[in-house]
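Hi R.,

As promised on Friday, here is the backbone we talked about, encoded as structure tokens. Could you run it through your design pipeline when you get a chance and send me back a sequence?
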């Protein structure tokens, strides 16, 4: 098989079945299944009684012939509880081996509750099992059929062994109690009929996992996506948040699997909304990463509203300067110039009527002459031409924003994995950006009209002066 439209439809139906009766758990269900498709593990962080174990049991029912293992750990737990009892017959033969049938090394899907309450001996054994899918049993290593482990905890560890184990869970998903808005639905769901597992036709088998893996290997990471990943990595490093290279590689694989499962041949920018649960350990820091992404996805830094506003302001300031400029000569470049004695005579005669006694008496000269500067067609054409270029670039960017919003709407309508709340927030930000850009375009148009209406030199005066003004200086727009 391949990851065709039919497979995508199967996944959509499977997810709908898994979510049935679970209130405000849509995103968690989808993330746990995506992690399983990618061969990764999920850690659910939250208080008891928030359906964490139910999520794991349902995930197990999504796979054909899957073996399920579940255990609640305490500080008194011993390895036998997870890995099986020691073999008496092997001990008689001086071998230290365990009977693993029915225990974690034999499981396809596993749920380990209060996972960080285990002692370091158990956690160290789990490190290899989760990462390598192998279990050290006696003198050899036993291959394990493990697809995915769901761990649950109330708190994030702060010791070295716990942190190493914490890093083995690619997805760290906070799970909180149902909100006030969902409380009535929660009570209604508690009175509903028992959940019906997925139909056999929807179940995933080894051939499905293999097909998704093969398709994901061919999925491309476009330069735009790689650039954003690199920017986020640098941002997190600046914030003092360490994300291991292994985690970045696994995150990129998860993005490829998400795209492949939907039948796409490349990772899209919207897929990066999956990143918070991969690169941040808790709800607060995941929200910060989400905000960072929302501010950058779908927009170009070179056309950020703040930068574009400064560009428009530069033209407005230049317009105000030229509108308020006074002139003793009507040189379009704004320089006082008397090019010939005749001009000096003409100017002196022009000023004669505005000369008076500075002290109110005769004989002293006082100039109170003032006239708005006038500009030639070359000057005005240079200014309006520069704004026309700016307006053309703004219009092009507005079209680009519209295309990004259309792409986002299409992704929102078809995605299997992305959180609709984040998608809605991103669309709102893009809409706000589009409105700001439209307002700045109107301001630029007003400035153009202002330049076009500047006082003009007569045709005869304009013929004498043809100096072009220096372009208005402003920040470059990428």
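Update: got your reply. Pasting your designed sequence below so it's all in one thread:
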């Amino acid at each position: 098989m391949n990851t065709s439209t039919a497979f995508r439809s199967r996944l959509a139906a499977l997810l709908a079945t898994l979510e049935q009766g679970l209130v405000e758990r849509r995103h968690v269900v989808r993330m746990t299944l995506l992690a399983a498709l990618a061969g990764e593990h999920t850690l659910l962080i939250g208080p008891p009684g928030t359906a964490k174990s139910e999520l794991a049991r349902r995930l197990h029912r999504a796979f054909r012939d899957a073996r399920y293992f579940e255990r609640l750990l305490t500080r008194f737990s011993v390895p036998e509880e997870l890995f099986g009892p020691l073999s008496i017959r092997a001990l008689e033969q001086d071998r230290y081996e365990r009977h693993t049938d029915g225990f974690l090394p034999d499981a396809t899907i596993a749920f380990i509750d209060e996972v960080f309450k285990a002692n370091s001996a158990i956690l160290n054994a789990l490190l290899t099992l989760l990462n390598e899918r192998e279990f050290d049993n006696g003198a050899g290593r036993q291959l394990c059929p493990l697809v995915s482990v769901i761990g649950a905890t109330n708190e994030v560890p702060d010791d070295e062994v716990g942190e190493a184990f914490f890093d083995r869970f690619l997805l760290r998903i906070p799970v909180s109690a149902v909100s006030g808005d969902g409380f009535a639905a929660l009570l209604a769901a508690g009175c509903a009929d028992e959940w019906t597992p997925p139909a056999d036709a929807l179940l995933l088998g080894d051939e499905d996992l293999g097909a998704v893996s093969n398709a994901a290997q061919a999925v491309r990471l476009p330069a735009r996506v790689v650039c954003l990943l690199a920017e986020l990595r640098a941002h997190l490093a600046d914030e003092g948040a360490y994300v291991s290279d292994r985690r970045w590689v696994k995150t990129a694989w998860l993005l490829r699997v998400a795209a492949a499962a939907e039948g796409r041949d490349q990772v899209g920018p919207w897929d990066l909304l999956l990143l918070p649960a991969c690169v941040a350990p808790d709800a607060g820091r995941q929200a910060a990463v989400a905000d960072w992404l929302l501010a950058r996805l779908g927009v170009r830094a070179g056309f950020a509203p703040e930068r574009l506003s400064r560009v428009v302001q530069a033209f407005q300031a230049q317009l105000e300067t030229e509108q308020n400029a006074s002139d003793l000569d009507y040189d379009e470049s704004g320089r006082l110039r008397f090019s010939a004695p005749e001009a000096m005579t003409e100017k002196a005669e022009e000023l004669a009527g505005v000369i008076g006694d500075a002290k109110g008496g005769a004989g002293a000269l006082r100039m109170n002459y003032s006239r708005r500067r006038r500009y030639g067609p070359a000057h005005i054409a240079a200014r309006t031409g520069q704004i026309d270029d700016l307006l053309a670039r703004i219009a092009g960017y507005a079209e680009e924003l519209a295309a990004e919003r259309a792409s986002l709407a299409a992704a929102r309508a078809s995605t299997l994995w992305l959180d609709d709340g984040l998608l809605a927030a991103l669309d709102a930000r893009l809409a706000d950006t589009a409105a700001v850009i439209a307002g700045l375009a109107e301001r630029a148009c007003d400035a153009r009209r202002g330049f076009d209406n500047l006082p003009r030199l007569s045709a005869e005066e304009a013929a004498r002066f043809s100096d072009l003004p220096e372009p208005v200086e402003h920040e470059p727009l990428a």
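One thing I noticed while checking it: DSSP finds 18 helices and nine strands in the chain.

Thanks again,
M.
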